[in-house]
């Protein structure tokens, strides 16, 4: 991948950098974001470790995490592809945005660009993602990025003693480009 990938919207994708630590710390401090990380991110050291983990995964070629930035290189959110299965040419996509970036197309444009990159550069054929059914904003991102709904996984996730249904989506390399 080139060092930076520009999107038609003035946004760009790039690997995570140490300079992103303050944004990561602020983003994951929100209650709605606490479940988006593998472990709690409550200190700058936690955020630095999170960024370092993304960089390590990239170098090991087991997952690719991108910061979606504005034209001034400030991270507005993240898009990642992991759970790569070379035999079946599949991967799992995830995304999040900062509170200030929500509703601006950051996740959908970033997700669309990462999907195209996965098909062209990684040779993947199928990308999957899932979202809780009580998260309609995440569903809108998936649909705008060209991920078609495929079904419901009943009560798949459990948080604080409450079970949540998950709607699955997928995008194939042979699917039409989303508009």
From TrEMBL:
It comes from the Bacteria. Residues 11-173 form the N-acetyltransferase domain. InterPro entries: Acyl_CoA_acyltransferase, GNAT_dom, Ribosomal_N-acetyltransferase. Pfam families: Acetyltransf_3. SUPFAM superfamilies: Acyl-CoA N-acyltransferases (Nat). This is GNAT family N-acetyltransferase. The lineage of its organism: Bacteria, Bacillati, Actinomycetota, Actinomycetes, Kitasatosporales.
């Amino acid at each position: 991948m080139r060092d930076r990938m520009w999107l038609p919207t003035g946004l760009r994708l790039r690997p995570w950098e140490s300079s992103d630590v303050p944004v990561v710390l602020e983003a994951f401090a929100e209650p709605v974001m606490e479940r988006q990380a593998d472990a709690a991110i409550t200190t700058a050291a936690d955020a630095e470790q999170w960024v370092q983990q993304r960089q390590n995964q990239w170098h090991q070629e087991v997952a690719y995490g991108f910061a979606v930035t504005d034209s001034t290189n400030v991270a507005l959110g993240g898009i990642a592809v992991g759970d790569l299965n070379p035999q079946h040419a599949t991967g799992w996509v995830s995304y999040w945005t900062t509170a200030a970036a929500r509703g601006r197309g950051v996740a959908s444009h970033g997700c669309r660009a990462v999907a195209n990159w996965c098909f062209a550069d990684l040779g993947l054929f199928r990308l999957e993602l899932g979202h809780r059914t009580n998260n309609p904003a995440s569903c809108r991102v998936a649909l705008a990025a060209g991920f078609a709904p495929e079904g419901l996984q009943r009560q798949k996730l459990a948080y604080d003693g409450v079970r949540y249904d998950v709607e699955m989506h997928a995008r194939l390399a042979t699917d039409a480009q989303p508009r």
